[in-house]
Amino acid sequence: MTAEPQFGKPVRILGIETSCDETGLALLELGPPAQDGQWPKARVLGQALHSQIDLHKTYGGVVPELASRDHLLRIMPLLTTCLEQANTCLDEVDWIAVTEGPGLAGALLVGVSVAHGLAAALNKPLMGIHHLEGHLLSPLLDAGSQDLRFPFLALLVSGGHTQIMQVDGVGQYTLLGETIDDAAGEAFDKSAQLLGLGYPGGPAISKWAAKGRADRFEFPRPLKNRPNLDFSFAGLKTAVLTQVQKLQTPPSDEDRADVAAGVQAAIVDVLVHKCMAAMDQTGLKQLVISGGVSANALLRDRLLSAANKRGAKVFFPPLQLCTDNGVMIAWAAGLRLSQSVVRPEAGDPQIMARPRWDLASLAP
Ligand code: KG4
Ligand code: ZN
After folding, report:
1. Cis bond upstream, residue 64 (ω within 30)
2. Residue from 293, 302, 327 whose mutation best tests the ligand 1 pocket (most atoms within 8 A of CB)
3. What separation in Å is there between the alpha carbon of 210 and the centre of ligand 1?
4. Which ligand does the CA of 203 lie closest to?
5. 302-308: which pairs have CB atoms within 8 A and are 24 or more residues apart?
6. Staple partner for 327: which of 26, 251, 276, 302, CB 3.0–4.6 Å?
7. What is the pLDDT of residue 224?
8. pTM assigned to the model
9. pLDDT band at 1, cuts 50/70/90?
10. Closest approach atom of ligand 1 to CA 264
11. CA-200 nearest atom, ligand 1
12. Is the confidence at residue 5, as pLDDT, over 60?
């Protein structure tokens, strides 16, 4: 089905996210595009989220088969919770938006299949959304981001991605640099695993680091001084392993805290350095940070002060939208509708699970 956005009345968008280990549903109400170039007003009417952290933590990482089964188990009850919270029913939904990719194939298939089923049963249009576009545009949902304008820079830092993009408009993303091996979130997760701090590693490292001395152990900052905007975090895992092997077994709490502080400092240092280099290279003075790692308090502080010194501004998503959720998917769909950049496949049965999907390929 094809459908033009009807902005005479608010548009209600159901967002569905199942790309990894969070099942996220949200119903977002989007007002008309503001005349003065402001982002459209949006209200989250209902949202339901289930994290599979407990399911995967014994394995130290996400087990794809378990993830798909759990999405299947959770998705319909979460839809009911979301609609109850919004005090509405499916008939009141105008659009359905679903994460098509990238992510785990089996996990994506659950969300995409449910979305197709709902769209067909309700005779509503369906839009496929790129997961990273959801992260990338989520800071715009924050009331403090009303003065953010295109073009801007964006740092996407999650468990699977570390990329610096230039954003010229909705759907117009140019990759400026990315990790050549592990993602920043992966570096947090693997370091936490080596220290026996549990999963997911980012929040655990950040908590332990608060009690540690960042200067006791020196960890590498690969590619930091190269002029390009690429990252490399694989060597950090080896450095942490080597350091942990030199400590007593199991490491004392003090050792753990000091290693955690050192690793966090190394990751944050490189991320901040490359973001500032991106500003210098492009001349852009607005930077959006998103993805799970954007919840990191040290990263937020360091970016804010470094940007401040350059007279630049940094925008973060609200904390509860840093990790995967359905709201960001509905919001990305809403921005596409409001800017009339609905991908040609909107409502098309070709909307499918795309485990590998390049964000830059969304360009109109
Ligand atoms: O975006 P996300 O929820 O899922 C992916 O698409 O990957 O990101 C999850 C990643 C994990 O690697 C997790 O350890 C990291 O985000 N993370 C953090 C923090 N909270 C989550 N990393 C550092 N500090 C945090 N506070
Ligand atoms: Zn994500």
Report:
1. no
2. 293
3. 17
4. 1
5. 302/268, 302/269, 302/272, 303/271, 303/272, 303/275, 306/272, 306/275, 306/276, 307/275, 307/276, 307/279
6. 26
7. 87
8. 0.91
9. very low
10. 23
11. 14
12. no
Q: Copy the structure tokens of residue 269.
A: 């240092």
CA dist 251 and 325 (Å) reads 35
Measured distance between the N- and C-terminal CA atoms of the chain, rounded to whole angstroms: 20
Query: Over pLDDT 70: what percentage of the chain?
Result: 95
Query: 159 C-alpha vs ligand 1 centroid, how far in Å?
Result: 5
Q: Residues 152-191: pLDDT tens digits? A: 999 999 988 999 999 999 999 999 999 999 999 999 999 9
Cβ(20) – ligand 1 distance below 6 Å: yes
| Strand partners of residue 156 | 163, 290
Residue to mutate (ligand 1; options 53, 269, 323, 329; most atoms within 8 A of CB): 323
Sheet hosting strand 42-51, strand order edge to edge: 42-51, 22-30, 11-17, 95-101, 126-130
Question: Ligand 1, closest atom to CA 22?
Answer: 3
One-letter amino acid of 27:
L
